[in-house]
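# nightly structure sweep
# worker-07 picked up a monomer target from the shared queue
# config: single-sequence mode, recycle default, output format = structure tokens
# input follows
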Amino acid sequence: MKKLRLALIMGYVILLMSIWITIRATQASEDSSAFRWAKLTLPPPPATSILPSLTPSLTYTPLPSLTPRPTNTYAPTSTPRPTSTYSPAMATSIANGCIRPFDSFAYDGPNVERTNLLPLPPGQIKAQIPPHHFEGYYEHYSFFNPALTRPIKEQQELWLIGDIWGEGLKYKKQIIIYRLESKEWEFISGDIDNTGLEVANLFITSKGAVWGRATWGYNYEYQRDTFPVLSKFNEMTRRFEVVEGVLELPVVREIVNGDSITILSDQTRILLDTRDNFWIFTEYNGIYRYDLADQTTQKQAAFEDFGVGRMIFASDGSMIFWGYNDQITQEAEYGRIAQGSLFQFSPKTGVITHIDLPDDEWPYGFGLLLDRSGRLWLGSAGYREPDGRWHLIARPENYFNAIDEGSYSYVWDPPTIIYESSDGRLWYRKYLDTSGWAEGTAWYDPETGEGCMFTNYPSYVVEDSEQQMWMVADGELYKYALNSNR
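# output follows
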């Protein structure tokens, strides 16, 4: 009997233990499920973030990281970009073929509402630059621009020039020719024969010959004591070559960190006149003329106290150019056009004189252009009438406020005037190495006062004989027909 009671008690104990184990196992299972679910349902991120905000805003506050890069630097930018969003005003503007009105493009700072907009209609893609193997360099066409057009052998040629890049940020010039009728492409080396120099700018003479300004490019091991400032394209060999009688400037060699580095004094500005004479302005040196007829170079004027900026021909054959030195820079008020910085050279007299600038407060004006009406344009700021009266397009209050409040940075820099098309419009380019955030290409109509930024890709433009404007954006060739019937 005792054995029976003991067996019943043991069985009861085992039953209770079994029930307890089952309950704990169930609880443990529920606890484990709850933990796994919590991991799958993480709470939303906080409203504030340690990362820079990329939310578009109607006002722009410069960031400490926005430091200028040299023009010829090919490196990913770390500057935060605004997200691609529309506002109602932007949507209306884009529907009209514009991203921003001209006055906003010129002096209102970065476009914070949209990035990476290719040329809007009536611009249209004409061709894509084809792949091409460059030994030791990358195939990258974002740095190419149209330089000139020329009729040859019953065809229209469009010449593009730009940089190709290799390891260690080395770069060199490359030229690409596009034939409009046959749609053929030709790749021309930017190297000048076997000199170690390369072509930087292109010119076309009255007879259709193509010439190029010489530069050292990435070649700091240049061995000669002088270098030629000009070269000519050989139609037979399809290469640029040095020709007889061209001006040669001395080479300046500097020692940096114990290493010998060759730096050429190639700070030249060159104009080609209607008589096929090259006018060569050299930094802190003087003005030279190269005569194609007799292949000689002669010095026309001397100056040792200032450098030379952009230049143009005036209607009387004289040359107008920006000049700069320490005194001009020190006396200038930041962000304003500086008195004493605009000069005029007369080939007839050999005399260089100052051009009086407006007494009023004017913003920077990058570039110079003399339009068909004889008006002298100082970038996007304004112009001088043939009778000497100055006209400011509009006072850019946001621009001056940014300067005076200390919030100005290089992304507020105004555009450079680059071209006048046959319909009287002026064309502007703004390149700041911001991948489209603070730059672009635009036109302005002086007769109506209206203008349009139609892409945030910066490009030079040229016009062909059929009133078609050409530009490059994102490695593609765009055509903009001035005649709306095209």
